[in-house]
Amino acid sequence: MSGTRISNTIPDWFLEMSYEFIYLNLSHNQIQGQLPNRLHSSRDFLPIIDFSSNNFSGPLPLISSNVFLLDLSNNGFSGPITHFLCHERKETMAMKILKLDKNNLSGELPECWTKWPSLTIIILDNNAFSGGIPSSIGTLQNLSSLHLHKNSLSGGIPISLRNCTKLQILDLSENKLEGNIPPWIGISLTKLIILSLRSNKFWGHISKELCALCSLQILDFSHNNLSGSIPSCIGNLSAMVMDYQSSRYNFESYFVVNYVGGINSELEIVADQRTYFLEDVFVAKKGQLLDYNNTLYLVKVVDFSSNNLSGKIPSEITILNDLQSLNLSNNFLSGRIPRNIGSVRMLESLDLSGNELSGSIPQSMATLTFLSYLNLSNNQLSGGIPSSAQLQSFNASSYEGNKLCGPPLMENCSAVGSKPSNQNGGGKGEDHGVEINWFFVSMALGFIVAFWSFLSPLMINRRWRYRYYQFLDDMWWKISDFACRCF
User: Fold this and answer.
1) 23 vs 80, more confident
2) How is residue 82 annotated by DSSP?
3) Rounded CA gap, 254 and 96, in Å?
4) In angstroms, rounded to a whole number, what is the distance separating the alpha carbons of residues 156 and 154?
5) Measuring CA to CA, how many Å separate 329 from each of 268, 294, 321?
6) How far apart are CA 387 and CA 381, in angstroms?
């Protein structure tokens, strides 16, 4: 009954009848009011309850211990969740998937997660939770996905999370978390596919241990206070080198097999249809924040923007040839743009603005045929912009705040003693010395060759020379005779 424009409240008789359902989906309607204090099921199966995207309000209801999936996201539920999580029950909670995102829930997250040992996905995004991340979450050894995005959580990342060795998605972005990014993440959470710590207060260096996350496809540390250099071992993130078929296998092999494994076959068919749409992550790409869900397995992003990083951009980053978005803007990076940046063949978005980069734009950048967003502004780059339809198609603002010339900028490279590179040129020493204009060189050579091709036979062959002089003499008398008749 999803998306059927049901409004008003749910009748009591319907809820009583719904206790016999295996799968109850009232999502994407306009149902309002409060749910009863308790939602339970009398079936032996593990039911799915989906009341998402409605106008429900009030506190969260208590849930029967045999519920497999509960989705109350995108409603108006409010208040703390202590009573929901910590209520005394005789049975162990069998729930695997809990979605409470996009509500008005508040208060601290309680230390009652040991009562929910089967939880595999926890999604609490877009609420008003405060306090620290409970250490008891670390007891959930089957946890694969933890979403706490956009709350007001503070403190550090609890060390107990290193026990969650099956974690594939860890999204703690847009909170008030602080401290160093723990090196044990790269040692214990080796199955991570998404690691998003964007918009927090983390400080310190980016640990080399994080380079061991060979399944990582989204790495977002933007808008923090990180310092030091980008580790050169970043080229070890091998999932950003593999093709998308391998990436899709990483996601699907887990989110279908493990989430529905071992439950009733009738329910497995229903759950299997939903697992592709449970996960979504906000990713900064092409200058804006985008929400990815069913195409999440296609996204490969590295974002270290708006920190205090310094040093050079490691050339090893060009090994990540399937990387789609690279954002290193608003740091203190220096040196040159890696010469082989064109090796990142799938790059769609590149933002290196607001740094201290110098030298010329590498010629290899002209080969990035998928590039649709580029920002190199406010650096110390110089020389001509390489000639390619791709690079000349961007707005001039992509290059402003440098000493660049050539289209799309108004500055003419010949006026400033430089010249845009063409697509076939590009030696290492092109940026220095006097430019040679081969057009004029070829004109001079052509004149010399033509002149001597004509004069040499006359000098060598006496007969040709006499004939030529006789021809000139005859022409002179004909011209003189014509002139006398006319005048």
Assistant:
1) 80
2) H
3) 14
4) 7
5) 45, 28, 20
6) 16
